[in-house]
Amino acid sequence: MNTMRDASLNTASTSGSVAAPIDLAGGLSSDEAARRLVKIGSNAMPDDTLHPVRMALGKLWSPVPWMLEAAALLELVLHSYPEAGIIAGLVIFNAALGLFQESRAQGTLAALRSQLAMNASVRRDHAWKTIPAVGLVPGDIVKLSLGSVVAADIRLTSGNVLVDQSMLTGESVPVEAVTGTHVYAGALVRRGEAIGEITATGIRTKFGRTAELVATAHVTGTEQKTVLRIVRNLSLFNGVVIVVLIGYAYLLGMPLTKIIPLVLVAVLASIPVALPATFTLAAALGARALAKLNVLPTRLSAVDEAATVDVLCVDKTGTLTCNELSVARVTPLAGFDEAHVLLLAALASSDGGQDPVDGAIRKAASNNKIDDPPRLLTFLPFDPATKMSEASTTDNAGQPMRIVKGAFTVVSALAGSSASGLVTASTLEDQGFRVLAVAAGTPTAMTLVGLIALSDPPRAESAELIGELHDLGVRVIMVTGDATATAAIVAKAVKIDGATYPPGPIQARIDPTQFAIFAGVLPEDKYKLVKAFQESGHTVGMCGDGANDAPALRQAQMGIAVSSATDVAKAAAGMVLTKPGLTGIVAAVKEGRITFQRILTYTMNSVIKKIVSILFLIFGLIVTGQAILTPLLMVIIMITGDFLAMSLTTDNVHASATPNVWRIGKLTGAGIVLGCALLIFDAGMISIGKFVLHLGINALRSLCFIVLVFGGQATLYAIRDRQLLWGSRPSVWLIVSSVADLLIAAILAVTGFAMTRLPVGVVLGTFMAAIVFSALLGLLKIPVFRRFSIT
User: Fold this and answer.
1) Contact at 8 Å (CB) between 644 and 740?
2) pTM for this one?
3) Which residues does residue 479 pair with via DSSP β-bridges, in sequence order?
4) Is the Cβ–Cβ distance between 763 and 706 less than 8 Å?
5) Residue spans of alpha helices (H) in 41-137
6) Tens digits of residue pLDDT in 144-176
7) Helix or strand or coil: residue 4?
8) What Å distances lie between residue 410 and 384, 406, 594, CA to CA?
């Protein structure tokens, strides 16, 4: 790949066609830098923003719009311009709602670009210059100073700095970078100053490779797959029925001028016109409910996916933990106590600086007071080269005392070895703690006074959250860049039980039930792990906070960024928690399952009505020898039935106890069985109209209209609860829409608008029959749902 070439271009790799030897003292010449910029490209990521017009047109290119567009063309051929206009309006309506679900990958890349340094101090032509960071090239000599953002991947050639790379590497604390080590683009310099040589820029940096993963990360949403499968099944079933319908009409000798409208009615009857819009509306309402619970969905599809998630991957630092170092344990050696160890360590710690280690120690020491503390004279901050900090003090007798704090091996070398100290330090390190030693005394006779263990404590609610998710059938897996020992301690504290994945590459397929901890993983590993779980047939949620989590957040069906997350993580995620803590995840899962149940009811209702409507056309053709409905009546049924039924997105339903799965085959099977019952009702009512009431063809068409409307409402109320005949109370909007649908149909039939007028008694009789049918269907649905596992 061109964008990945010259990933580590340095003196050796640039000695070819573009290169002159690098003068580390004077830096590159302006001419040499310009040549490398042309060959390698700017220190920026490409802008792949999709044009809004192209995004809008994409919403018109899918199965449901195709069917509506075909129906509109048929109406135009028949010169039925009002009907064609109505159908075209439905297409535009669906497309407009669909735009709200557009991918956020472009926003993610924009956030990644905004994290890069805008300017950099670079040595060019033997002089230091400040230039835009986009003009940097491999081989440039740059200076890093306190508060600056690292503009590219750099190998340090002199100096020492403390850099915060947690949002890139997952490391829980800033790291000391000394001569010969690398620092990465996007890191923040917390202390010190250094000079280094750029080894990679733009998309070739570690930061850039994260952006490239975000750009390529993609998973087809449940909504997209569900709509496609439903349309496919309905198209196959109804396509066969339409062929039979045309064949029978031809055998009856119907002229082409009557067959075409019949075909048009059949096509309109088979289109689940409001299905995509209903998915959008249900997710939007779910998102609004989540916003009140401090969860902000950035993609509506994430609300749908929350219902189906059965595996949740969580980052340790800043997600399960507080991302804040604290003193976990103090081990004083003989002759000292905890208070004195902390006091001496605090004297050898910076006051008010940005070093999180020093801050944690001073905070712990402030809770312990001792009499006559030593008086601080001078303080030398932590030096990455010596791996310690120190202070000069005087005790209460005025005697000078030297205090050092730092790595155990360094401090013990100054103070003399201690067998007990060595055993204690090894034990603490094996338990995942960061261990510091403290020594005090005269410069020539120092004594090891104690050990301090630091940790990033788990959030108070993490264990409870994981327990709730377990009860909801969601397996929680820790995925972290930290060491295995540290990860195991946190996992035990938050009650994540299970095996640790062995060191090595991530396999293409992994069963998440086999492992509970993945430690020492890189950004690419997190992304690959999510894909590996998905390849094993699982719906994956990913929770994180840093840029290193962004590709995995984007790839997961439900990516969740915690409140402290970077803009990169928030843009990549489908949901953002707006308050500290993780309790919003449980709320997201429950609300997602409520949304799923609402959509499931609408989908089943739509499948039943579409199957029945087209079969009903065949029955009507057999009984009357003519088309039993006109295209205009079918369009009215579509608008009043399909769109008013969208009020199901507000219905009062119960959240599922386990992760939901779209089983389209079983859903279609249940729809066919219940549809047959509805077909019997519809056919019976038309038979009464034909053979008992002796209605003419036009009156029969009016009767067909109200039978389909009343029967549809009866079906809706019968199936809205999975187990009970009458479940929870319908929502106000559902009741209002049902009343509106029934009144519109009744008024049109009684007044004879767009159809032949029907007697009031016939309309009322049909309504009463629909109520009886709804009760019977409510009894039938219970064994049907049990047989097809509709829960």
Assistant:
1) yes
2) 0.71
3) 518
4) yes
5) 52-58, 63-77, 81-98, 105-115
6) 876 677 888 999 998 888 887 765 655 556 778
7) helix
8) 12, 7, 58
